[in-house]
Write a structure and sequence with these properties.
single chain, 144 residues, mainly alpha, signal, 41% helix, 4 helices
Length: 144
């Protein structure tokens, strides 16, 4: 038995109607869009983790005007978000060094922070896949 496309069609119709409604904000219409397959969930490129303190993930927020999120804070561009992730990592690393939790110094955390920030300029993926608007027209073909 083939799976029914009716739930998908109902969802698309509801999303299109909601996006066309003047009472629905642009932000809500953004959230009703469709994402392409194989989306990137984390744009963080730096993998160093001195003392186990890794750089925060750079994920996609629900805010179309500030689509990058780091530890709950949102940013409108990749570079600012990545810098925050590096700064957060540096603070966590320095806390570990100051508490003598690891066998490293704050100076080594400083070096790691420099490496983290240098990695920002080498990132090849600095945006998330575009969201397809729910107001777009779709052709749906069904095999019977």
């Amino acid at each position: 038995m083939k799976p029914s496309l009716l739930p998908l069609l109902a969802t698309l119709a509801t999303a299109a109607a909601a996006a066309a409604s003047p009472e629905i904000s642009d932000d809500l219409a953004f959230n009703l869009g469709l994402l392409p397959r194989q989306t990137v969930n984390n744009l963080q490129v730096f993998t160093g983790a001195l003392g186990g303190a890794a750089a925060d993930a750079i994920t996609q927020s629900d805010d179309p005007k500030a689509p990058f999120e780091v530890n709950g804070d949102t940013f409108n561009d990749f570079k600012t978000a990545a810098n925050r992730a590096c700064d957060n990592q540096h603070n966590a690393c320095a806390d570990l060094a100051n508490n003598k939790t690891g066998k490293f110094t704050v100076g080594q955390c400083d070096q790691q922070s420099t490496q983290c920030k240098a990695a920002i300029d080498t990132a090849t993926k600095t945006s998330f896949n575009a969201l397809f608007s729910s107001t777009a027209e779709f052709d749906i073909f069904c095999d019977t």
